[in-house]
Amino acid sequence: MLIYLRILKESLFFAINALKNNKLRTFLSLLGVTIGIFSIIAILAAVDSLKKEIEGSLSSLDTSTMIVMRFSFSPTDIPQWKREQFPDVSYDEYQHLKRSLPQTAAATYTLNVKSEPVTYGGKQVQGVEIGAVTSEYYFIEALQLQEGRFFNEAESNSGAPVVVLGNEVAENLFGNPEAAMGNKVRLYGRKFAVIGVLEKEGNSMFSQSKDGAIFLPVNVTRRIYGDNNKQTFPQIILKPEDDVDHAAYIAQVEQSLRLYRGLKPDQVNNFFVNQLKGLTDFIDNITGQMNLFGLIISGFSLLVGGFGIANIMFVSVKERTNLIGIQKSLGAKNKFILLQFLFEAVILSIFGGLIGIFLVWIITLILSQFTGDFQFVLSFTNIMIGISVSGAIGLISGIIPAISASKLDPVEAIRTGM
Fold first, then answer.
1. Position 386 pLDDT exceeds 70
2. Is the predicted pLDDT of residue 152 greater than 80, yes or no?
3. Which residues contact 182 (CB under 8 A, 6 or more apart)?
4. CA distance 68 to 279
5. Where is the protein situated, by its record's location annotation (predicted)?
6. Within 211-275, where are the H helices?
7. β strands within 235-342, DSSP E
8. Contact 332, 407 (CB under 8 A)
9. Residue-wise pLDDT tens digits, 331-371
């Protein structure tokens, strides 16, 4: 064990000397490793950060949640021209599914309508996102209220003129969420009583923050837009009970809706039951492909870096031929010489990799200052991957020069070096 520590110490000494005495040559040789490791770690960090942000954006919805609509979250074999002919899900179908699926924990019907200005007194907030939903949306999305309450089933069914404000909307109109309670805001040319204010969420790159939104009963917007408006993109969101088999539940949803729509056995479903778990799996697949593509591109930089390390090690062997001969004449074994140069190659390569990792870390800190709530993550796992890959590159690149050094004849080595 002591001899390996001694070899490591001497290799570190020789590596540091190589950096000091041949700065330009060493810089050019390590540049490829630095760029390669920088590329790999930057890609891994970017994809991890992207994945974390997407998962965070979807965290408010349970992955078992299912969305019934005329669009599919994932690729499908049904041609586009046929999908474009699919009818939207209706409010009546929502009520039918709610009645016919006893294992449903919660179900809601939503409409995606355009943003509208909301006014109170002399103040107005432009471009407010309108959440037209039924009452059980509150439980499915796990909304958090700072003040008041969400509208109940009776208010939802009757289309009562009540509204729940996002935190930012409440602050812009009333100065603070507490002052909003009991007042009435104007929307769609009519007045709505404020019955609740949501807690502040903050911005997200991949999901619409509810801070700038308001929620009102879906039957209010149904009266305004109608049930056959293709611009509203209606959805039925279902949350099955915890102990339900999802595949069997989806089959029940499909069978129930097929019967309601009168589809024949030979006809395909003219709707899609999208499961959020399928969406997260699809995201995992996409990010995995992004990682793979990035690693292949970065591999070319590492290949150049490997040749650079091999080049500097061949030069190092050439310069130290005389010293190798002296070491062998004093009893140094081939194994000692081999490990000495291998350790040096690995140390040089890891040094280049650490520079690349350091650059990624600096860039993540800078970018995080300009991207709001989106945070770039440089995980410990990615750091260890970078160090391991750079060490492997050094090992592979240094093996041939190390073998050639270990096989030198001591007499010829001393004579050549003189």
1. yes
2. yes
3. 193, 194
4. 13
5. Cell membrane
6. 218-225, 246-261
7. 235-240, 272-275
8. no
9. 777 777 777 778 878 888 888 888 888 988 888 888 777 76
Amino acid at 145: L
Taking each helix axis from N to C terminus, what angle separates 321-329 and 334-368, rounded to the nearest 10 degrees? 130
Pairing of strands 104-112, 66-69: unpaired
Among 27-31, 177-181, 276-280, which stretch is predicted with the lowest mean pLDDT?
276-280
Contact present, 48 and 381 (Cβ < 8 Å): no
Closest CA to 357 of 381, 392, 394, 387: 387
Cα distance between residue 297 and residue 148, in whole Å: 54
Contact 314, 383 (CB under 8 A): no
In degrees, rounded to 5, the angle at the alpha carbon of residue 132 between the alpha carbons of residues 102 and 107 is: 10
pTM: 0.61
pLDDT at residue 151, as a whole number = 95
Closest CA to 161 of 194, 137, 135: 194
Reported residue count of the chain is: 418
Please report where in the chains the tokens 């390996």 appear, as a residue: 4
Q: Cβ contacts of residue 338 below 8 Å, gap of 6+?
A: 402, 403, 405, 406
Alpha-carbon distance values, 153 to 6, 96, 130, 182, 273 (Å): 77, 16, 19, 20, 25
End-to-end CA distance of the chain: 34
Amino acid at 349: S
Least confident interval from 4-8, 10-14, 278-282: 278-282
- Which helix (H) or strand (E) segment holds residue 110: the answer is strand 104-112
Between CA 37 and CA 365 the distance in angstroms is: 18
Q: How far apart are CA 175 and CA 65, in angstroms?
A: 36
Task: Kindly give the pairing relationship between strand 213-217 and strand 66-69.
Answer: unpaired
- According to the model, what pLDDT value does residue 337 have? 76
